[in-house]
Amino acid sequence: MSNLYDAAREGFLAGEIVWKNDGSTIKAALVRGYTFSVAHKYMSDVISAGGTVVATEELDSLTNTNGVADAADAVWEAVPEGDPINHVIIYQSSAVEGGSDVSAAEQRLIACIDRAAGSPLQLIPNGQDITGRWSPGADRIFRI
User: Fold this and answer.
1) pLDDT (tens digit, 9 = 90+) per residue, 12-32?
2) Can you give 103-133 as a three-state secondary structure string?
3) Which residue has the higher pLDDT, 139 or 59?
4) Is the Cβ–Cβ distance between 23 and 96 less than 8 Å?
5) Phi and psi torsions of 13, nearest 5°
6) How far apart are CA 39 and CA 113, in angstroms?
């Protein structure tokens, strides 16, 4: 299940978040120990809420058709063994123009994909690569 952060909706409407490869850098983070809150705005909020970022991957081949965000499947390489990963966090890691990464206090949260216990989508890392295959359904990664 994908949840959009309220600040992301505002960011898309204000033009502060651009979902395409030539605008800003969009990444996906594998996170454990985080409790989702729609009010969170930055990656620093995820960390403050107990989240541990296990691995990140830049998303490629971003598309946005009819309000639906999609990307090429992501591959997180050699994800360290450990506790299950309960969320995949999609975030903007750079300024809209220029593409240079900014600090966690400025990295805008976009969406949170729930992989919590009991979910058939729960991820348990074993030291190998993890491939994230986005939904082939109508909503893909998320729908605005």
Assistant:
1) 999 888 888 776 799 999 999
2) CCCCCEEEEEEECCCCCCCCECCCCCCEEEC
3) 59
4) yes
5) -65, -35
6) 15
| Backbone CA torsion sign across 130, 132, 133, 137 | positive
Amino acid identity at 136? P
Phi, psi of 7 (to 5 degrees): -65, -30
pLDDT, tens digit, 9 for 90 and up, residues 48-94: 999 999 999 999 999 998 989 999 999 999 999 999 898 999 999 88
Structure tokens belonging to residue 47: 């960390």
Per-residue tokens: 71:
């990307």
Residue where the block lists tokens 């949840």: 3
Q: Is 128 left (phi over 0), alpha (psi -120 to 50) or beta?
A: beta
Residue 86, judged by CB atoms within 10 A of its CB (0-12, 13-18, 19+), counts as buried
Task: Give the SS3 label for residue 99.
Answer: coil
pTM of the model: 0.88
